[in-house]
Amino acid sequence: MPLTLVTVPCLSDNYAFLLNDSDTGATLLVDIPEAEPIIAMLQQRGWSLTDILITHHHHDHIQGLAGVVAHDAYLRVTGAAADAHRLPPLSRAVSDGDTFVFSGHTIHVLDVSGHTLGHLAYYIPDAGAVFTGDSLMALGCGRLFEGDAPTMWASLQKLAALPPETLVCSGHEYTAKNAEFALSVEPDNAELIARAARIAADRAEWHPTVPSVLSDELATNPFLRVYLPKVKETLSLTGHSDAEVFAALRARKDRF
Ligand code: ZN
Ligand code: FE
After folding, report:
1. In what order do the strands lie in the sheet with 105-111?
2. What is the CA radius of gyration of the chain?
3. Contact indicator for 164, 214 with CB cutoff of 8 Å
4. Pairing of the two strands 14-21 and 105-111
5. How far, in Å, from the CA of 188 to the mean position of ligand 1?
6. pLDDT value at position 71?
7. What are phi and psi of 164, to 5 degrees?
8. What dotted CATH number matches 3-255?
9. How far, in whole angstroms, is CA 84 from its chain's centroid?
């Protein structure tokens, strides 16, 4: 396996990700919450950055760019064409369905708007990983700041259709709080109860709960489970569409 994935904690609860190809030395970074921990990890590993992928325009995902670029000057920066006006200057502007190549490995671009419009996810089959930013998160999903509920629901369905063993590399450590909410929706879900216990144990030792595995999200993340009669019944929305139930669930989480 020439690809090595490293999670880099940044700020108070953000994550950036590094992916290194040991065959070529190429190293990719997803999101730049702050420069210092990323540069420290690169130095610790002896890696030099060649590529940066941006998921969305929020400051906590791009504000470290200048510091990282100053350190490794020859970088390709990739982000959403639709967001080019509010992202740092892009070397490569991409849209839903595009593919491009990192060190011989194909990267698939998915538009996963909802949290913001123009929010992208990057799926790298050779790494078995998808970088989801603030769309699909461990046991949760991003708040709807720019998109509406049907848009986010469609985005989550694209991610849910990836191979179940895919690692979900999302942008924040919100998992313990998300677990409380998930349990309030599905208190009898045995897999969720077991996962919540693992999360509590991990967080007690400050271990990241990200990345997670897509199959675990499918089994326990309520935002991927709004199609279930039991979840609809809990929300008193039996007979309503999945998108309507998703909207109600997201609104309930906003108040939780
Ligand atoms: Zn965000
Ligand atoms: Fe964020």
Report:
1. 99-102, 105-111, 120-124, 129-133, 167-170, 212-213
2. 18
3. yes
4. unpaired
5. 31
6. 78
7. -60, -20
8. 3.60.15.10
9. 20
199 in Cβ contact with 176 (< 8 Å): yes
Q: Tokens representing 144?
A: 């709807």
Which residue among the candidates 21, 56, 57, 111 is catalytic per the annotation? 56
CA proximity to 3, closest of 139, 100, 106, 78? 106
* For residue 255, pLDDT beyond 80: yes
Predicted TM-score (pTM) above 0.90: yes
Sign, CA torsion 47/210/169/13: negative
Distance 171 CA to ligand 1 centre (A): 8
| Ligand 1 centroid, distance to 166 Cα (angstroms) | 22
85 part of the active site: no
b/e map 177-198, b = 16+ CB within 10 Å? ebbebbbebbeebeebeebbee
Which tens digits make up the pLDDT trace of 36-47?
999 999 999 999
| Tokens 């979900």 -> residue | 168
The verdict on whether 134 is a catalytic residue reads yes
Q: How far apart are CA 16 and CA 233, in angstroms?
A: 37
Our answer to whether residue 188 is catalytic in this structure is no
